Amino acid sequence: MPVYQAPVADTLFVLNDILGWERHGNLPGFSDATPDVVEAILGEAGRFAADVFLPLNQSGDLEGCHRAADGSVTTPKGFREAYAQFREAGWGGLSADPEFGGQGLPHTLAAAVNEFLSSSNMAFAMYPGLTRGAIAAIEHHGAPEQKALYLPKMVDGIWTGTMNLTEPHCGTDLGLLRTRAVPNADGSFAISGQKIFISAGEHDLSENIVHLVLARIEGAPEGVKGISLFIVPKFLPEEDGRPGARNGVSCGSLEEKMGIHGNATCVMNYDGATGWLVGEAHKGLRAMFTMMNEARLGVGVQGLAISEIAYQNAVAYARDRLQGRALAGSKHGEKAADPIIVHPDVRRMLMTIRAVNEAGRALILWTALRGDLAHRAEDPKVREAADDWMGLLTPVIKGVLTDKGFENAVMAQQVYGGHGYVREWGMEQFVRDARIAQIYEGANGIQALDLVGRKLALNGGRAIQAFFKEVGAFCEEHRSNEAMAPFTKSLKKGLNDLQSATMWLMTNAMQKPDNAGAASTDYMHLFGLVALGYMWGRMAHAAQEKLAAGAGDDTSFLENKLVTARFFMDRLMPETAAHLARISSGADSMMALDADAF
């Protein structure tokens, strides 16, 4: 069975030495999250992930979920008991509002815990993960009585939540959806239609499931401007809040999927189900996007999480597997062969995964902190800047880290050779599980289009200009520091490429929109490299400062940071030039063939 140890030390390094955790102690929720408390929470979360979630990962994948003739779904053996432990420990309410039973701790801390849980069992972690998104949508857009009825039970975990967008005939283009909402005399609506790919749509973990469903009110305009959002519970709540009669919603079938078999991905049928409007009529996408943005960041965490557990197991295998001799001479002459970790190409794969993981973790936590500042800071300018960062980086984190997460899982599988292809070692499951993260919550091509087509120009380009200024100022601040030169020179070159790509888009995309579409994925990955490189620049500087001050037991940890940072700058950052070249080539060759020529 695969092994996993939560990267607690690395997470604490980011929180304390990169984010300056204690500097934010004046913000609501942060005063309770002292460094000692944070370390204790992360340590316990790591143990919980390894001891409770991980043992069910392979068995849950092999068994999968089962649907009975009546539409009820049973999760794999052990899931119910593990979910009960999850609830009792309060993990689902870590960052939720205390008004509804949550602990009110920073979302940044919850993001770190989510990584550990997703690494140990991605399919399982999706059940409470989707509930958090549904909580966010109801909290931001629901009526007071809806919040009072649903949120305490969802925060507790006794009720779970889902999001229902996709239909058989439409995916991202939600303007095509056909699910209808007919007004009832009591102010509720009768919801009818079918939704597909609904993760955690039906299961036996909670006593009720709260579905958030996009539908079109009878007579509403066609297209996205006529879409509304509804709460449609599995069981209709009684006046005292207990689950009552079964609603007209059921699981028609379970999707037969490539991976995440432990999660019940359902076709959901709504047959006149009773639902209640969330927020304003015809403004459903705005409410749902609160949930989707939360989910997109969570999916970026999944990309990192699978990459991390795949890396840890590939390293363990590479240390033990004996094959061949080191090119520079035998390292273990007493053995029949050297462990494969001595070979440069194995090192290339392991170092690539490691360099992306550590920078990706820093970028996620850096961005999650911006989310906390956007909601908790007193200064409006701080909130605005934090919100700008969140909007700009959300598609980058989702798109880049899930693309890299899948690539890294495949690389880790390659380290195993043939053993990586067979089930018993667990690596093929990581590859299968990682693949979905590139698709759901908006496929990565859509993330790239969102970045290029919407986020860059938003508010007159305020967010991207602030990003350029921040990264440029960091490079300038350390320009005369010789120890930082290996990092800042490569980072500045990458930043220059990103700025050039942005200018090219400004010049060429408006007059020919296909240029923007053709450039979008390369632009997203170019942006991602610079953002990850910026994280490595900050981590390298922090490591150098701590070493200069006398690091003690942390010396090896910090020296390894500097080596990994150098690898990223030497081997990965130069890819910005290739992305820029592809962007600058335009759309002509991409769009030249007639459709029937393919």
UniProtKB/TrEMBL annotation:
Domain Acetyl-CoA dehydrogenase-like C-terminal: 467-594
Domain Acyl-CoA oxidase/dehydrogenase middle: 163-271
Residues in Acyl-CoA dehydrogenase/oxidase N-terminal domain copies: 80-157
Pfam family, one: Acyl-CoA_dh_M
InterPro entries according to UniProt: Acyl-CoA_dh-like_C_dom, Acyl-CoA_Oxase/DH_mid-dom, Acyl-CoA_Oxase/DH_mid-dom_sf, AcylCo_DH-like_C, AcylCo_DH/oxidase_C, AcylCoA_DH/ox_N, AcylCoA_DH/ox_N_sf, AcylCoA_DH/oxidase_NM_dom_sf
Enzyme Commission number(s): 1.3.99.41
TM helices/strands, residue ranges: none
Catalysed reaction equations from the record: 3-(methylsulfanyl)propanoyl-CoA + oxidized [electron-transfer flavoprotein] + H(+) = 3-(methylsulfanyl)acryloyl-CoA + reduced [electron-transfer flavoprotein]
Keywords per UniProt: FAD, Flavoprotein, Oxidoreductase
SUPFAM superfamilies given in the database record: Acyl-CoA dehydrogenase C-terminal domain-like, Acyl-CoA dehydrogenase NM domain-like
Location of the Acyl-CoA dehydrogenase/oxidase C-terminal domain: 283-451
Record function comment: Involved in the assimilation of dimethylsulphoniopropionate (DMSP), an important compound in the fixation of carbon in marine phytoplankton, by mediating the conversion of 3-(methylthio)propanoyl-CoA (MMPA-CoA) to 3-(methylthio)acryloyl-CoA (MTA-CoA).
Family: Belongs to the acyl-CoA dehydrogenase family.
Name of the protein this chain belongs to: 3-methylmercaptopropionyl-CoA dehydrogenase
